[in-house]
């Protein structure tokens, strides 16, 4: 049985689909991105419905103060994509949809006898917000006021869950969260993500020179960068240490940067394309992802694939891939002392990670889970 995918943003599912296509196990790839943007290989079965995505990402290029609310825009994008794909859905086997953008797709799939797989790029909605809310309270904000969620969206999520026959997750973190929500363990497939070896090439050795720390991601309160800045202040950092921040700057975390008093330099790169991200990774000594909530953290596996050790909080799903003390460190979320100690450790133990995480491993795990499902 082949797998089809539907996603507005390629995120992890495009690479998963490519790996399946290479072994002739892909049905269709329904894309919210235009085909020209993905640059798919010849013969790749892409079916694009991208108008709302192009509009949404066009607005993303505007300054934060001038663009519409991000959450509302992405919901508008996802719901339109969902309806468009449902109208053209066909075939058999499995269909993977992402939460918030597959309600109509799943309804149509159940009519056609296609097995519905809810592919979780994030954790359960309410648990996710519960973990993040204290970070907003810390800076005097209310998550419900800053990022309100209409009841219609909550209902959409509930209905998608009711239509899902399988839940596919990338980490033990989300698996455990789903079990806490009442999902049977045998209905959950754990399939960790991989990294594109052509882009995130393994470096020969850890670089010389000043200690370079990397943070990659949108600088939201959810990402816990506050604790990284505090750890830099409390660690044995000196003026030679550098923190390189890759990703969109957001006003909600600006006070944390303004209040930073550490000796190390903070260098903002902004959002960068993947080839540039990979080149920067190869020039760093450690990646830090101290998130309050992170279902997986694709930048972690990309950094490991590049040879870069990673420090992650215990709420980051990709901790499953980090060998503590060997290829990185797993620290309790919000514990500044533990994070500072880990930063010092990886300054003193500069290393090159040799572990590999090809997308072919991901597709192999997915196909094994699907075979077991089909035989029961």
Q: Describe it for me?
A:
Strand 2, helix 2 and strand 3 form a beta-alpha-beta unit. It contains 15 helices and 13 strands. It has a seven-stranded parallel β-sheet with strand order 3-2-1-4-5-6-7, sandwiched between helices. A six-stranded parallel β-sheet has the order 10-9-8-11-12-13, sandwiched between helices. It starts with a strand and ends with a helix. The protein has 376 residues and is an alpha/beta fold. Helix 3 packs antiparallel against helix 4, helix 4 runs parallel beside helix 5 and helix 10 crosses helix 14. The protein is globular.
Strand neighbour order, sheet with most strands:
3-2-1-4-5-6-7
> Which stretches of 5+ consecutive residues score pLDDT under 50?
none
Q: Summarize the helix and strand pattern as letters.
A: EHEHEHHEHEHHHEHEEHEHEHEHEEHH
Sheet having the most strands: 7 strands, parallel
Which helices and strands appear, and what pairs or packs with what?
Layout: E1 3-7, H1 13-22, E2 26-31, H2 35-38, E3 46-48, H3 51-60, H4 70-88, E4 94-97, H5 103-112, E5 115-119, H6 125-138, H7 143-146, H8 151-163, E6 166-169, H9 172-180, E7 188-190, E8 212-216, H10 225-234, E9 242-246, H11 254-258, E10 265-270, H12 274-282, E11 286-289, H13 298-306, E12 310-313, E13 328-331, H14 336-348, H15 359-374
Question: What key attributes describe this structure?
Answer:
single chain; 15% strand; 376 residues; 15 helices
Give a short synopsis of this structure.
With 376 residues, the protein is of the alpha/beta class. It is 41% helix and 15% strand.
